[in-house]
Design a protein that fits this description.
The complex is a heterodimer of chains A (about 650) and B (about 150).
Chain A lengths: L1 H26 L8 H27 L6 H6 L6 H6 L5 H22 L5 H25 L23 H29 L5 H33 L9 H26 L3 H23 L13 H25 L14 H31 L4 E2 L2 H21 L14 H21 L5 H16 L14 H26 L1 E7 L4 E4 L2 E12 L3 E12 L5 E3 L2 E5 L4 E5 L1 E5 L2 E10 L5 E9 L2 H43 L1
Antiparallel strand pairs in A: 2-11, 3-4, 4-5, 5-6, 5-7, 7-8, 9-10, 10-11
Helix pairs in contact in A: 1-2, 1-6, 2-5, 2-6, 5-6, 5-7, 6-7, 6-11, 7-8, 7-10, 8-9, 8-17, 9-10, 9-12, 10-11, 12-13, 13-15, 14-15, 15-16, 16-17
Chain B lengths: L5 H30 L1 E4 L1 H6 L8 E7 L5 E2 L5 E7 L4 E7 L11 E9 L2 E9 L8 H18 L1
Parallel strand pairs in B: 1-2, 5-7
Antiparallel strand pairs in B: 2-4, 2-6, 3-4, 4-5, 6-7
Classes of the chains: A alpha+beta (about 650), B alpha+beta (about 150).
């Protein structure tokens, strides 16, 4: 019964999306003005209905209703609760329903609370949002119905891929999806503003919290995904330039650029066309990412079903939305009037420079990701990895980071460089000192990590400079947000550079009692014993890890074997210190009875994810600051209106 | 420095952005020609070996009875074949769970002398996860290759 309710509610929501689109379009014509009051409630109702449909699917998974095809294929009654819940979106259909849910709920929230935008622009935005979500409704209902029943209930579910049975699954996909779909709101705002020729600061202010929110979630999703891959794959790497990782990085790059240009538009009324363009590009990258990940064109744990029909469907949606948006942009770009001007030495100019560099990196990543697909179509199989991505993106990233250090110190509109020579010189001297110091102490270091360390220290110092001369209690939250986010970038960069420069690895076959040395650690294999969990059994090694001869800590790396479905997973063991992380993996037993063990000592590697969290925290502070000032403004305007009313009496 | 005229400013911005993006594209194209790692099957690798030390990928079947572990316990030698040619491979590390004789593998690495030195092995994970290069093979060739190598 619940499955049928879910399906019916989903169809009703799709019908409301049609109504929202039609009413929205008609309401923009003079004759349809009486429809203008329909659009907002319909958008809210659509959000509520989809939320109900999603709740139905969650309850089917929680009760493991095996008469539903999706549940039978992806769940299992013996699975722990958290994975039953997360299993809802650990598959193609469920994840697309999550996508539509977030999209409709976000649209509903816009309809409910957005009051600053011109009413016709808001109606056009909601119509645009309905148009975009309709494509995904069609995709869900016509080719990936999550509520499909089996003719006969299955005796038992097929279970969830062991690689996905991790708490990471509960957080990583929903956070990324909120990010992806949040960008769809930015896209709809851009479309709405283009349609009603209302590209200006009000549009940027309405869009900015959504971009900020989406960007925070993307940052968290990427950070969580990176850490998940790091500890679950047992390869000791935190970023592989895998197409699926790139698919999440590209929207982040575009959203970062959009965030900054929307700021310029909101506060300085410049970069109008550019901001609209970035709004379109950012959501395009979300769609490209979804296409790459969900079409089965790439194979990875992220590609749930290799189904060419679905790939073509997403490709068609991509072509319609992106092609349509770019056409609209082409037609209307000339009507976007020029904004305020600024000098080459100004904060705007620095932001433009960084925008262009971010787009350059985006282009590099996009080309590198699509290149193997292109050559494969021509019959040549290639793969593109770190030797391409690292140096080529660094060519754009390093100038960008240098300007990141200087830009926030510049004044809007026009400034003189000699005003900020002193603080910038100190940052440069710091960076140079690190460069020389590391080069002397570790002469074998490669160029990129060396530059990374130096730039990271310089940027970390410079990121706090915008606070000098300010009263820290009265500094607005968005400034704190910027400072912390920029500092987070430096922290993450330091972790990355340190990891790639100073990691040490030890691979050995060991008997119980044997010892190995890796970095400052001495590791002794105590024993290997079998252990069991709810739906897995494992061989577990007990390893005593002594840091620089001190009291040993005990680590338990495991090799797990899952039963439903059958599969294996290495469970690495980590020991985190302030200055790095020890990483231990248990391999196989050799013919001579020795056990393969692999250890890494990775100095400062946790800074990578700490930096990611700081960046997200910075975004959160900025978002809170913006929302708080919006609320204050609303309250103030209400008061003024009230007073006027009373005086009028 | 004085602010320039709005019309010119928009043009300058456009030109700067275009130059950067075209530059990025050219750079990408140039770097890809040098850095993309090509995929070989053993017969191609033997017929037209890539230059020594260049990163390439080798895909094929792990021949039956070819896996030998060296005394250090972590380095293995094995042979990858496609029914027409065979290539000796050396790998140091923990092998993937489904790396067994007679199954498909993609090795990332480089030629050193006559031996392919692998940095990383990608084995078939499960029915749903096959290395992309093995996909075509599993449909037509893998069974045949396995039959031939038995």
């Amino acid at each position: 019964m619940i499955a049928e309710i879910g399906l019916a509610v989903l169809w009703m929501a799709a019908a409301l999306a049609v109504l929202q689109l039609v009413a929205g379009v008609l309401a923009l014509k003079p004759r349809g003005a009486n429809l203008i009051d329909v659009v907002r409630p319909v958008a809210v109702m659509q959000g509520v209905l989809v939320l109900i449909a999603f709740a139905c699917l969650v309850s089917l998974f929680l009760t493991t209703d095996l008469s539903v095809k999706l549940v039978a294929e992806n769940s299992h009654s013996a699975k722990p609760f958290i994975f039953k819940l997360a299993g809802t979106w650990g598959n193609h259909e469920g994840s697309m329903l999550l996508w539509v849910t977030i999209m409709a709920v976000a649209g509903g929230i816009v309809a409910l609370i957005e009051k600053r935008l011109r009413e016709d622009t808001l109606i056009a935005t909601l119509a645009g949002q309905a148009f975009v979500s309709l494509g995904f409704y069609a995709f869900l209902l016509l080719s990936s119905n999550p509520f499909e029943r089996l003719p006969e209930p299955a005796p038992e579910g097929a279970g969830l891929n062991p690689l996905l049975q991790d708490v990471g699954l509960a957080f990583h996909p929903p956070t990324l999806y909120v990010g992806y779909v949040g960008l769809s709101i930015a896209f709809s705002f851009a479309i709405g503003a283009l349609v009603t020729r209302d590209v200006g600061p009000a549009f940027a202010r309405a869009m900015r919290p959504w971009v900020l929110g989406a960007w925070i979630f993307l940052t968290l999703g990427i950070t969580a995904g990176s850490y998940w891959a790091y500890y679950t794959l047992g390869w000791g790497g935190w970023w592989f330039w895998d197409p699926v990782e790139n698919a999440s990085l590209m929207p982040w790059l575009a959203a970062t650029a959009l965030l900054h240009s929307a700021s310029v538009l909101a506060s300085r009324n410049a970069l109008r066309a550019w901001t609209v363009m970035l709004g379109v590009i950012a959501f395009s990258m979300s769609m490209v990412g979804t296409f790459l990940v969900r079409s089965g064109i790439l194979t990875s744990v992220h590609a749930f079903a290799v189904d060419p029909e679905r790939g073509s469907f997403i490709l068609a949606l991509l072509a319609i939305y992106i092609g349509g948006a770019l056409t609209l942009f082409g037609v209307r770009a000339s009507t976007v009037t020029e904004g305020s001007r600024f000098s080459f030495v100004s904060r705007e100019a620095a932001l433009v420079f960084n925008n262009v560099m971010l787009c350059g990196i985006l282009g590099i990543v996009l080309v590198g990701t699509l290149y193997p697909l292109l050559t494969e179509a021509m019959g040549v199989k290639v793969s593109v990895g770190p030797p391409y991505f690292n140096p080529v993106s660094a060519i754009f990233a390093i100038p960008m980071l240098l300007v990141l250090a200087v830009g926030p110190l510049l004044r809007w509109r026009q400034d003189r460089l000699n005003r900020i020579t002193m603080p910038v010189a100190i940052a440069a001297v710091l960076a140079a000192a690190v460069l020389l110091g590391v080069e002397v102490l570790a002469p074998q270091i490669k160029v990129l990590p060396l530059l990374g360390l130096a730039v990271a220290v310089g940027v970390a110092y410079a990121s706090f400079l915008p606070l000098r001369g300010r009263n820290l209690h009265r500094t607005p939250l968005p400034i704190w947000g910027m400072v912390i986010a920029h500092f987070g970038i430096a922290v993450a960069l330091f972790g990355m550079a340190s990891e790639s420069a100073f990691s040490t690895e030890r691979l050995a076959a060991m008997n119980p009692g044997d010892s190995q040395q890796v970095g400052p650690y001495t590791l002794t294999l105590k024993n290997i014993a079998p252990v069991a969990g709810p739906n897995w059994t494992a061989l577990e090694a007990t390893v005593a890890a002594s840091y620089a001869g001190g009291e040993p800590a005990i680590l338990h790396p495991q090799a797990r074997t899952f039963s439903n479905p059958p599969g294996n997973r290495t469970e690495s063991a980590l020991k985190t210190r302030w200055n790095g992380q020890l990483y231990a993996v248990l391999g196989e037993e050799g013919e001579d009875g020795r056990w393969q063990m692999r250890f890494w000592w990775k100095p400062f590697v946790p800074l990578i994810w700490l930096g990611g969290l700081l960046v997200a925290l910075g975004g959160l502070l900025a978002l809170l600051g913006r929302v708080a000032s919006d609320i204050r403004r609303l309250v103030a305007t209400d008061k003024i209106a009230y007073r006027r009313q009373r005086q009028g009496r | 420095m004085s602010a320039i005229k709005p019309k010119h400013q928009r043009l300058v911005l456009l030109v700067v952005a275009l130059i950067a993006l075209v530059g990025a594209g050219l750079l990408a194209a140039f770097a890809l020609r040098n850095q993309a790692s090509y995929f070989y099957v053993p017969s191609e690798l033997v017929a037209k070996p890539p230059e020594q030390g260049r990163a390439v990928r080798l895909g094929g079947m792990v021949e039956k009875g070819s896996i030998r572990t060296r005394p250090d316990g972590v380095t293995i030698d094995f042979t990858v074949g496609d029914g027409k040619a065979r290539v000796p491979v050396r790998f140091t590390g923990i092998t993937p769970d489904l790396f067994v004789e007679g199954s498909g593998v993609v090795a990332e690495g480089r030629m050193e002398g006559q031996t392919f030195v692998a940095d990383n092995l990608l084995a078939k994970h499960d029915e749903k996860y096959v290395p992309r290069e093995m996909k075509d093979m599993s449909a037509q060739q893998v069974k045949q290759v396995v039959a031939e190598t038995k």
